[in-house]
Amino acid sequence: MSSQLRWGVNKYQDASSRMSPALLRARSRYTKRNVATGIVIAGIVCGIYAYAATATGSDDFSDVPMPPVPENEVEKLRRERGGESRI
Questions:
Q1: What does the alpha-carbon distance between residue 60 and residue 52 come to, in Å, rounded to a whole number?
Q2: I need a surface site. Which of 2, 31, 74, 76 has the fewest CB within 10 A?
């Protein structure tokens, strides 16, 4: 049976939906451990993100050959951009 009794009364919360003192005492044992676990998991996530950002940020694509752009595509792009010759 769940924490909800048959008559709709919750024995772990009072009428204002706050946790009862008994529930606060029962949960207090696990608060420090849960906070420590959360910090460890957040640290792992941040470490993986930082590693991925630094590993991919140092890629150099100068050795990758660019295929030639056909002349008709170049003219089409120039017309679309208003005559800019940055291609």
A1: 15
A2: 2
User: In percent, how much of the chain has pLDDT > 90?
Assistant: 24
Q: What does the buried/exposed string (b/e) look like for 17-43 if buried means 16 or more CB atoms within 10 Å of the residue's CB?
A: eeeeeebeeeeeeeeeeeeeeeeeeee
Tokens of 13: 């919360």
- CA 23 to the chain's CA centroid: 31
* Torsion sign across C-alpha atoms 74, 75, 81, 83: positive
> CA triplet 72, 78, 80: central angle to 5 degrees?
105
Contact 3/12 with Cβ under 8 angstroms? yes
DSSP annotation string for 9-25: -BTTB-TTSPBPHHHHH
pLDDT digits (tens, 9 = 90+) for 18-34: 887 888 888 888 999 99
Tokens for 62, please give them: 């100068």
